[in-house]
Design a protein that fits this description.
Blueprint (H helix, E strand, L loop, with lengths): L10 E2 L7 H10 L9 E2 L1 H12 L3 E4 L18 E4 L8 H12 L6 E3 L5 E4 L2 E4 L1 H12 L4 E2 L5 H11 L7 E4 L2 H10 L3 E4 L7
Parallel strand pairs: 1-2, 3-4, 4-5, 5-8, 9-10
Antiparallel strand pairs: 6-7
Helix pairs in contact: 3-4
């Protein structure tokens, strides 16, 4: 209905367990006509930042997201990129990321989001923010967040739409990442009572 109305639409997701292509495939299977270009996601934003700054990441992300970083040099890492790694959030994997960061003169931690938790069909699950905070604390470093609620994330979505913030509305279920992030960027926002709206 939004597309039929003539309004511009951009899907902003903090999905970091799948590539944008997989995300779009899932939405199309549900009957939504969506293209990859209509999706703003953290992994491509992180890749842009890595290239721009000549960073080589150690990835602590979900194995299904790794293809998003195929074009990025990962040899001799000089930063850590953290996403919702799900089952990959083991002590050994977190400790490996910790050791890399603590061994750097100027540690760089890039997080694909900072959500506290999210909702799956079997209930609420810890999100990347909890693990990000653990590494920040252990390494005395401030993570750079490239997903929601980062202002730069919403600015990239607005750039894709070609509209200023005051002409856009963000609709989402997360009061901090969706609504708060959009409002800090100068957008209006609506909270829907689905997912983790509580």
């Amino acid at each position: 209905r939004i597309k039929a109305s003539g309004l511009k639409l951009q899907l902003c997701t903090n999905e970091t367990q799948a590539t944008r292509q997989d995300f779009v495939r899932k939405l199309r299977a549900m009957g939504f006509e969506v293209s990859v270009a209509e999706v703003t996601a953290p992994a491509p934003a992180a890749c842009h930042l890595l290239r721009e700054r000549g960073l080589r990441p150690h990835l602590l992300v979900h194995h299904d997201l790794v293809p998003e970083f195929a074009e990025i040099d990962k040899t001799n890492p000089n930063c850590v990129v953290l996403g919702d790694a799900a089952e990959n959030f083991t002590y050994a994997n977190l400790n490996e990321a910790f050791r890399l960061l603590i061994g750097m003169e100027k540690p760089v931690l890039i997080s694909l989001g900072k959500g506290r938790y999210y909702k799956e069909t079997d209930g609420l699950k810890l999100d990347v923010g909890a693990y990000m905070k653990a590494l920040e604390y252990a390494c005395d470093v401030q993570a750079e967040v490239v997903g929601k609620p980062a202002k730069s994330f919403f600015e990239s979505a607005l750039a894709e739409l070609g509209v200023p913030p005051e002409q856009a509305v963000m609709i989402g279920d997360d009061i901090v990442s969706d609504v708060g992030g959009a409002q800090q960027c100068g957008m209006r926002a609506l909270q829907v009572r689905t997912g983790k709206y509580r």
